[in-house]
Amino acid sequence: MALDSLKLSDALADVASGALQLPDFQREWKWDDERIRALIATVTLDYPLGVVMALQINGSSPFRTRPLKGAEDVGERPPDLLLLDGQQRLTSLFQALHRDHPVETVDARGRELKRWYYVDINKAIGPPAERDDAIVSVSEDRILKTGFNRREVVDLTTIEGECAAGYFPLHFVFDTELVNAWHQEFVKVDNENWGRWGRFQMHVLSRMQSFQVPMIKLAATTTMDAVCAVFERVNTGGVPLNVFELLTATYAGNQEHVAEEGDYYKLPDVWWDIKKALCSSYSVFGRMEAGVEDGLSSSDFLQAVALVRTWQRKREEPRAAVSCKRRDLLELPLADFRQLAPQVAEAFEWVGAFLERQCIVRAPDLPYRTQLVPLAAVRTILGDRTDTELADELLTQWYWCGVLGEMYGGSTESRFTRDVEQLVERLGGSTEVVPDTIAEAAFLDDRLDTLTTRNSAAYKGVYALLVKQGAVDWYFAEAPLNAARLAEYSVDVRQIFPKTWVDRNHPAYSARANSIVNKTPLSLRASKSMTGSPAGYLKTLALESGMRAEWFDDVVATHLIDSPLLHAGDFERFYANRSKQLLELVVSAMGKRTVFRDAKAG
What is the pLDDT of residues 370-383, one digit of tens each? Predict the structure, then answer.
C-alpha cells in the first residue's frame, strides 16, 4: 500500500482516458446539486478533499470494470487503477470540471436535473467565507434566473454573455487554450477586469489547477477478501457492499469464460432464473414481484453452494474445514459455482417440497429462512438418499428441533457447518452421531406463555404443527387444512377467546390472551363470526357450517381444544388444558421430552 498525491487535473484526465475505472460492484453515483457546488468550492479554496483509494492492476483486473459516469466513450481500454473510494467526488468533479456537457444531478427533493457550473468572479475574489455563494449552478439551457421571483435573466449561452456577467465556466478550468480565450474576451468588456482577472487567477484558477488529490494505492496482490473489507470500511456513507455484488464483478471479469462463451458471466441473470423457478414452484421462497432478494436471498444460495464445495474439498483434504464464511464465498471459483449451482437449485426445490409436508407454504409463515441453507446443502450432498423413511424422520426431527428450540436465531455459520457434517454422517450410517441441533434443543413449557407474535420462530412453528396434525377450519369444515387451503382460505393465526372478551371477563389473564395458546389457524371467513363469547360464536359457526352442534365440537377438537371449556367460557381451565396438549405436540415434533416447570428433564 502506498500513499501518493496527484494533480486533480491528472486524475480527471485518467478518468477520461479510462486509466482510472471502477470495479463493477461499485454502484452508480449521484450527488445532489448543492453537494456538488460545495465540493467545487472546496477545490477552489484548496481545502483538503479527502483521501481516495484505488487498487493497482498489473495488466489483468480480478473484476469486470466500467468507466466512471460520463467517461463511457473510453471503449475497451483496460484500466491501470480501480477506484474503491472516492467515486462520488471524482465523478462529480469530472463531470463539472472536465466535460463539455451538463452534469446529471438531482435537487434536494430528488428530482432529476442537468446543470452547468460557473464561478461568479466578483464573489470569488472576495472573502473565502463567501466562496460557496460564488459557485453557481445553471440550468441546461444556460439561462440563469435571479433576483426577486427569479425575474432577472442572465444569458450565458455565449462567451460574450458569460464575460459580460462575470461568470467563468468551470468546465474550462483545465484547458489552457479555452481559459486564455475566455480571458481575452473578459478583459475586453471592461479595463477593470484586468485587475479582477489577476486576483481571480491567483485566488481561484491557480489553486484549482495545482490542486492535489491524495490517493492510497493498494497493491495488485491484495486479496478479494481484503478488497471487500476495505471497501466496506471506507464506504460508510453508502449502501454496504455484499458478497453477491463482489462475486458478480469477479465472475464477469473471468476472461476464460469470455473466451469460451463469447460474453461475460452474468451472475445476477443466473440467480434471477433460479429464484424465479423456485418461487414459481413454492411461494415459501418469496415473491418475485417484491424483488429477487425477497425471501430466499442470493446470500443464502451462495452459502449453500459454499457448504457443499467445502464439504467436497474436505473429503480430498481432511484438514480442510466445512465452512460458508464470507471468505469461502469470495474464494468460490466460477467453474465450481457453475457446476454446483444447478444441483443446489434442485436441492432447494426439494426443500420447498419438504416444507410443504410440514405445512409451511408461505414466506411470512417460515420460521427460519437460514435453516434452509444447511438443509439444501445436505440434500445436494446426499441426493435421493434423503428420500428414505429413516432419513425423512431424522431431517424432520432436526428441522423441528431447530424451529421449536429456536436454534437459528443468532449466529448461524458455525451451526451450518456442524449440521451439515453431522447430518451427512448420521444419514451415512453412523447411528451414534446425534446432530447438535437435536441434542441441544430444549423447549421450556412456560415458553408458550411468551409466544405472542410472529417475531418468534417457535410461534410460527406451533402454528404450522397445528395445521400439520389435522386442524379443520371452522367455516370451511369439509376437510382438514392443507397447503393449498392455507392461501385459498386466507388462513392466519386467530384468537380463540377474543382479547376484548378476556379483558372484560378475566382481566387477570389479559396478558395471556395474546399467547399462541389462545390462538389457532383459521380462515378469514371464520374469524368474521368470532366475536363476543366463544359459546355464542360457536353456535353461529355451527349453523354456518350446517353441522349439528356435537359434530361441530369434533371440528373444534381438531385444534387441540376442549370445546366444553369454550362453551363454559372458562378461560383458565381452557388455557391450562390447551397448554398441555400443545406441549405434547411440541414433544412429538422434537422427538424428545422438554424441560418442565418442576425442573425435571424427561
Answer: 999 999 999 999 99
Q: How large is the angle between the packed helices 372-382 and 334-357, nearest 10 degrees?
A: 110
| Beta-strand pair 20-23/81-85 | parallel
Question: Which of 144, 98, 155, 115 lies closest to 35 in space, CA to CA?
Answer: 115
- 3-state helix, strand, coil split of the chain in percent (to 5) is 55, 10, 35
CA 5 to chain centre: 36
Q: pTM of the predicted model, to two decimals?
A: 0.74
Written as one string, the DSSP assignment of 289-332 is GG-TTSSS-HHHHHHHHHHHHHHHHHHHSTTS----SHHHHHT-
Q: What is the pLDDT of residues 203-230, one digit of tens each?
A: 999 999 999 999 988 888 877 667 766 6
Q: Would you say 585 and 579 are in contact if contact means Cβ atoms under 8 Å apart?
A: no
C-alpha cell at 120: 461568479
Grid cell at residue 257: 469464460
Q: What is the pLDDT of residues 463-491, one digit of tens each?
A: 999 999 999 999 999 999 998 899 899 99
Residue partners of 306: CB distance under 8 A and separation at least 6? 323, 324, 328, 329, 332
What are the cell numbers at 8? 486533480
CA 116 to chain centre: 36
**Residue 95 to residue 324: CA distance in whole angstroms:** 42
With residue 591 as reference, give the H or E element that holds it: none
**Closest alpha carbon to 138 in 108, 107, 115, 171:** 115
